[in-house]
Amino acid sequence: MSDLFFDRMARELIALFVEARKGKVQHELDEEVERITGKECDDAARTLSKAEFKRVAEEAMANIRKRKSKSVVPTSGKEVPAYA
């Protein structure tokens, strides 16, 4: 995980920072930022303006949320005995 990107996120986008820490998605966030920007995460943190940084971080977290919600398999609501 890019410490520089994460530190900047903690200073400028505290709500997303807390969500990333809580969801333990730092590594995914790093990869997603690199995918979106085409730059290493540290380079993106150094060169992006405040508005660009915010847009990239929000888009990255939205993509991660979307992937996580797709990976959750809905249950039918029926209980399944653990040991029958």
Can you give a write-up of this model?
The chain is mostly helical and 84 residues long. It is 73% helix and 0% strand. The longest helix is centred in the C-terminal third of the chain and has 22 residues, at 50-71. The radius of gyration is 16 Å and the shape is elongated.
SSE blueprint and pairings:
Elements: H1 3-12, H2 14-23, H3 26-37, H4 41-47, H5 50-71
Helix pairs in contact: 1-2, 1-4, 3-5
Structural class: mainly alpha
What's the alpha carbon Rg, rounded to whole Å?
Answer: 16 Å
The proportion of strand residues reads: under 5%
General form? elongated
Percent range of helical residues: over 70%
Determine the mean pLDDT: 83
Report how far the terminal alpha carbons are from each other. Answer: 44 Å
Query: Tally of extended strands?
Result: 0
* Main sheet attributes: strand count, strand direction, barrel closure: none
Element order: H for helix, E for strand: HHHHH
Tally the helices. Answer: 5
Model regions low in confidence, pLDDT < 50 over at least 5 residues: none
Please describe the structure with a list of short key phrases separated by commas or semicolons.
elongated, 84 residues, mainly alpha
What is this entry, summarized?
The protein has 84 residues and is mainly α. It is built from five helices and no strands.
